[in-house]
Specification:
The chain is of the alpha/beta class. It contains 17 helices and 8 strands. It folds into 2 domains: 178 residues, P-loop containing nucleotide triphosphate hydrolases (Rossmann fold), CATH 3.40.50.300; 167 residues, Chromosomal Replication Initiator Protein Dnaa, Chain: A, CATH 1.10.1750. Helices cover 55% and strands 9% of the residues. The strands form 2 sheets. A 5-stranded parallel beta sheet has the order 5-6-7-4-8. Strands 1-2-3 form a 3-stranded antiparallel beta sheet, with no helix packed on it. Strand 6, helix 6 and strand 7 form a beta-alpha-beta unit. The longest helix is centred in the last third of the chain and has 22 residues. It starts with a strand and ends in a 5-residue tail after the last helix.
Length: 364
């Protein structure tokens, strides 16, 4: 088995010892049936020889793992000690550098850099739309490298090269003549497995029912899934863990920016009452805490228009009837407590423009 490769019973994983583990979380790419060709393509690239596949093209929408694979390839390549120069750049960077070379009359030096390369990763080639001169030069470079058979080339784009608008026909044909691999968003099976791995890595208690529900309802990228899991972890007291009902409430939010907006409300309210955010979410029934929670509920209702069930999720997963009672009590207090009214008005004026500019929510 090649260095950096890992096999598990569920599906194959391409294992990369990436330098920034905090960014990548799981040091491997999950390969499900929807991306069955990825492993073979990576084996071709990691071998360090063109092997008749020139170039290798990965295409797919944002969130399918193109950047993960390209940067992982660079790391594995270096770990294997392949000789020769390595280039990783975006198509826009290639365009800018070519323009600089033309202006400074240094095109031969510019081209020589690519002719000497042993691995070249060119990302987002669809960004060359309409840049005819750059496309022509790129096609010439590809022809030369194909003849030399000394460079491994990986190109990424959002759509299949043959349908990229504004791309010259003969450049499209050169790209389509290589190994073209579609990257698709992860299947249900992979989303579920990813969540199970993430809760282990992050030591998050999450029920199997909650994992299954989240995996079935969020059908986008693994990055979006990770964000949802971390937000759920933040909103849920550690002693309770993430349950199915918590995920159901979370997915009922009217806006993907509500979590950040609610964090702003919690933070400002806690600071106003000289408390901590975790105090507002905690079980204490001290008068100051009860009043502060009531203000939080009132502001969330008035500014964001959230349901009592949704607000309860942000306040320690409290029942919606508890939140309703807190709202009504605070609303009554405001009619005869000028000091509390001043606090609420101050917070409202501060938070209203801060949180509604991103969420677009609000309630009268």
């Amino acid at each position: 088995m090649a260095t950096g490769m890992l096999k598990i019973p569920l599906k194959n994983l391409l294992g990369f010892s990436l330098p920034d583990q905090g960014k990548w979380e799981l040091p491997y790419f999950l390969v499900g049936p929807e991306n069955a060709l990825v492993e073979s393509a990576m084996e071709v690239l990691i071998a360090g020889r063109p092997m008749g596949y020139f170039p290798v093209v990965f295409y797919g929408p944002s969130g399918t793992g193109k950047s993960f694979l390209t940067h992982g390839l660079i790391q594995v390549w270096k770990c294997l000690g392949h000789p020769g120069p390595v280039i990783i750049e975006s198509a826009q960077e290639f365009h800018r550098q070519l323009a600089d070379a033309l202006e400074s009359q240094a095109v031969p030096d510019f081209l020589d850099r690519y002719y000497r390369a042993r691995l070249w990763v060119l990302e987002d080639i669809d960004r060359l739309e309409g840049k005819t001169a750059t496309q022509l030069q790129l096609a010439r470079v590809l022809d030369r490298l194909r003849t030399q058979q000394t460079c491994v080339l990986l190109i990424s784009c959002r759509t299949i090269p043959g349908s990229i608008p504004g791309l010259l026909t003969h450049l499209q044909s050169r790209l389509m003549g290589g190994l073209v691999v579609a990257l698709k968003l992860p299947s249900m099976e992979i989303r579920r497995y990813f969540l199970k791995e993430m809760v282990k890595v992050k030591q998050i208690h999450c029920s199997p029912e909650a994992i299954d529900f989240l995996a079935s309802r969020m059908t986008g990228s693994l990055g979006q899934l990770r964000k949802a899991l971390m937000e759920l972890s933040t909103l849920t007291p550690a002693r309770q863990g993430i349950e199915l009902s918590t995920v159901q409430k979370y997915l009922a939010h009217p806006s993907p920016n509500v979590c950040q907006a609610m964090r702003n409300i919690l933070h400002h309210t806690a600071r106003q009452f000289a408390l901590r955010v975790q105090d507002l979410r905690g079980p204490s029934r001290k008068k100051q805490l009860v009043n502060a929670r009531g203000v939080t509920v009132y502001l969330a209702r008035k500014i964001l228009g959230l349901s009592f069930q949704q607000i309860g999720l942000f306040l320690g997963n409290r029942d919606h009837t508890t939140i309703l009672h807190s709202y009504q009590k605070t609303k009554n207090l405001l009619t005869h407590d000028p000091a509390l009214g001043h606090v609420v008005n101050t917070l409202y004026e501060t938070l209203k423009p801060l949180v509604t500019s991103k969420t677009g929510n609000g309630s009268d």
